[in-house]
Amino acid sequence: MAHFTKPAEGSWTEHFGLGTEPVSYDDSISPEFYEEERDAIFRRTWLNVGRVEQLPRKGSYFTKDLDAARTAIVVVRDMDDVVRSYHNICRHRGNKLVWQDYPREDTKGVCRQFTCKYHGWRYDLAGNLTFVQQEEEFFDLDTSRFGLVPVRTEIWEGFVFVTLDPDAVPLARYMGRLGADIEGYPFHLMTQKHTYRAEVASNWKLFIDAFVEFYHAPVLHAKQATEEESRKLQRHGYEALAYDIDGPHAMVSSWGGMSPPKDPSMVKPIDRVLRSGLFGPWDAPDIGDLPPGLNPSGHPAWGLDSYLFFPNFMLLVWKPNWYLTYHYWPTSYHTHIFETSLYFVPPANAYERLRQELAVVTFKEFGLQDANTLEATQMMLETGAVSEFPLCDQEVMLRHLHRTCRRYVAEHRGEPSRTTVRVPAAS
Amino acid sequence: MATLPQAFADLEPYADWALPSERDRFAKRLASSMDELQAFYDAAFTRLCDGVEYLKGVSLDDIGEQDRNLLWLLCSLVTVSFPVEVWRQPRVPDSGASSIDVVVEPVP
Fold first, then answer.
1. How many helices and strands in chain B, by DSSP H and E?
2. Regarding the domain delimited by A12-43+172-413, which CATH topology (the fold level of the hierarchy) does it fall under?
3. What is the ipTM of this complex?
4. By the CB < 8 Å criterion, does B108 face chain A?
5. In this complex, do B57 and A349 lie within 8 Å of one another by their Cβ atoms?
6. pTM for the structure as a whole
7. Is there a contact between A277 and A362 (Cβ–Cβ < 8 Å)?
């Protein structure tokens, strides 16, 4: 009953050589494994911490807690227009350098220098220690040795990434072939931003699992479609147009018949009036030519491409010319902070603002269903009553994600693995 | 003084739905009964087509207070459309203890 062509091997899973056996979820319920992931994954990969639009001018900064990577950073556009990051720590006695009111909450702003709240030590935006309170009281203090500790920072298509691994390959190479496929997409035109945040009681990988397969959509979200449409969706099930894997990264290309729907009665009354919904406003803004890598199968029913850039950054590019991001920031083996940002071309009038609101809020309704399901999954995985789970071909990205995590950890332990983690080749 | 543009004076009884943050709109939805949501939905949805035509002529750069209130009120209509059109209850079904909160949103 395949609606879309699969690879010659008969399945995506076999095509990518991932094995078809049931998968262990021990990697999602173990405090010890999570501690290893922090060092093996979150301190070794490139992590997306934001976009350049968050740093609009010289002196703009924001802080980012990277608990999984065992640090917190401050990202700043310096006086030479260079985006830099530092461990957010004062060199004097270790106080967190930049924060407001609550040390554990992130902040942002504009400044010409960083001043520590504790003893007033000051640093310029290039990280140099420029002022020491009562410097004469110190002993042979060589201020050139006490600058802020830098964190490697690079930018890909306006997305700001950091890594704690001094030996990491350059970011563009890390992003690999899948990254190259969407280079040139006009992300910079989509500056109308809505961000949501949730504390989720599950392992970080479980939420990625939920968002890299659409097999669940006709069932979990059945009530969001009209009854007749919902029955039809469940009967058909879900099949993606195409999957792709490159090194630790993966993508799924999906159909998206809802923007606009073939038959308006398929969607809610307000969607019909506002001409908008889960797939975004139906009338796409003109954003010029798109990169040829989008819609890799070239299918006319194409609706979105969804990328997982390992470990925790997802990027979804939608046919009606908008995009969203997901980030999953672990806080323990069974909790994480989920962040999503939806980006649109700024609305030309108040009506366009209203229809973007419908897309955003529809997304939130779906997300609330997804988030609670995860807590239920985590709870039962932790019982250990069942330890292996069959994954279908539409869950190929989950299989790849868990396998990639296990391989990073094994490699970090120094264990020999049959296939080492492949760093994407230079494109 | 009118909260909404003259042409939408019939929606004045629902002016308390003109809330500038999605967080507040969602909180008001959760604090309302289905009868209250249905009453607001019925009144506002009847005027939605007119609202769309009106808002097409409103620029966000120099938006006035009454126009802004109409936009917020219709954003609340979007928020209550889910309980009224789909869920038949104020909360998202099976969403239990989970919450997803807005931290950045455009104004307006």
1. 4, 1
2. Naphthalene 1,2-dioxygenase Alpha Subunit; Chain A, domain 1 (3.90.380)
3. 0.98
4. yes
5. yes
6. 0.94
7. yes
